[in-house]
Amino acid sequence: MQNPRDILQHVFGYHSFRGQQEAIVQALVNGEDALVLMPTGGGKSLCYQIPALARPGTGIVISPLIALMQDQVSALRELGVRAGFLNSTLSFPEVQATERALLAGELDLLYVAPERLIQPRTLDLLQRAPLALFAIDEAHCVAQWGHDFRADYLRLDMLHREFPEVPRIALTATADMRTREEIVERLELGAAEQFIVGFDRPNIQYRIQQKDNPRRQLLSFLKEEHPQQAGIVYCLSRKKVEQTADWLCREGFNALPYHAGLPGKLRETHQSRFLREDGVIMVATIAFGMGIDKPDVRFVAHLDLPKSVEAYYQETGRAGRDGQPATALLLYGLEDVVKLRQMMGASEGNEQFKRQEQQRLSAMLGLCEITSCRRQTLLRYFGDVMEEPCGNCDTCLIPPETWDATEAVRKALSCVYRTGQRFGATHIVDVLRGSTNEKVITQGHDKVTTYGIGQDLTADEWRTVLRQLVAAGYLDVDPAGFGGLQLTELCRPVLRGEQSVHLRRDLRTRKPTTRTARRPDADIAEADRPLWEALRACRRRLAEEHGVPPYVIFHDVTLRDMLEQRPLHEQDLLSVNGVGDSKLKRFGIEFLDVIREFDYSGSQAL
Ligand code: ADP
Ligand code: ZN
Questions:
Q1: The 34-37 sheet, strands edge to edge
Q2: Check: CATH 3.40.50.300 for 204-332+370-397?
Q3: What is the residue with the minimal CA distance to atom 15 of ligand 1?
Q4: Domain 204-332+370-397 matches domain 402-504 at the CATH topology level
């Protein structure tokens, strides 16, 4: 059996394991089961790829992400790993060829879609092949209430009965306790060792802003902070995805839409352009993103509120997998809260399910409205403790002001009560501000005692108050009606004068000043720039030749290391982070040529 450290160095070109990787690899190599919870970008793939190479037989990787298998397999082949896949995109002769390779022991790793795996033909095939392990990727797909649920995953509990000798590793980036328990239970992983890696993603700057003029807010964010960079913009509806993508294109950005309603071919093209081209913005519904392992996504912007903290964490986690600075921006407002609360109230499903959804949404709203460190709250939600505020979220960078809003809150709540708990926020604000519009008059609301008692605040300020009251659960949204607000039990002590309420003051713009427009490579010295550009051009050319995204040839970190070390011989190149034996052989000479040329012209200049 080959030593895992040798494989790490020679195949992947990395000098050391990260975090718990080595312990996980060792457990698998010893034939034990493992459950791995690691944030996106943490390095999950090596946890099964290395033991698959170290152990005799083929490692079977179960993944729902058919569209990505080709890329994953190409990336492995560039490393000299013998990899293949089985899914519905293959023709029958291609399937047969892969099956033959498996039986002949010519594969180190085989990626299989779950629906393909559970077919009798595949199970029979696997019974006849020597297997190193089963890796169940995106294991949270087994969780029935989760939004990524796949029924085929439920059948995977048979693996250890049918293949008792083969170790299993289940991996996910979904952090919440409930999902973790569901994975253990449904996949019968009770005896597996659990590896739970801290969930912090320190390089992501979390920011949550009040929606004011969302397009203008997004535009200045893109222009000032992330010009020409790759990122994802999430929207709730397909229509909004298309409108936003169109508008961004008109504004001169390279933006593409992605949602489940687009034809499969077009979705594939857009995904592949996002992976291969520089600086593409993907405007998408949550249908996009699972398994996208593009390392240099520099921002994730949400134009609508995610349904839960889990969803928010998972979606924002797609930024900055390479560990370089990235931003997560969420814009939200009163309409979002009302819309989501309504959607949930009206959704199918039993009462317990609805209650859970509401609780999840409340936790998300709590995160939006807090005045302390966002990261501390986010991590606490997943059971991680962070002692000090992070210094890299909006509330740390610009601490929000709070004010004693007890008086205003009482006015707002009584106004809701006096007008019959049937009206939405706009009408409530009109009554408070003493508007004479038609609806106020025809409803006779100019006669209620709360009419006009709120002249001291602007309409925007009242909306802020109402939003925070809904978020904090003082007000409910009528699911059947048109967003009518209703009082909840929580209001009693406030209305009786027994409790005071502090709210946050919204700032018009909440852009931390510590960030200015910059390119990801802005820190590269002027003198190094020509070589840097030449290395990138070399990478681009090779990527095109091999039909893979540039980062499959080498990551930015690897090019940076080359820039620093300036290797002139093959042996030196091996000590660059990310250069293993296979890539040395395939691409080494091309990059050495580029570096040598600069070294030569550099020394001439001396
Ligand atoms: P995940 O699947 O957990 O989101 P990946 O397996 O895609 O993460 O790894 C994220 C990035 O980190 C990849 O680019 C990978 O090559 C890199 N990486 C993983 N482990 C190491 C390591 N030990 N040393 C250096 N880079 C690593
Ligand atoms: Zn913070």
A1: 83-86, 109-112, 58-62, 131-136, 168-172, 34-37, 193-196
A2: yes
A3: 43
A4: no
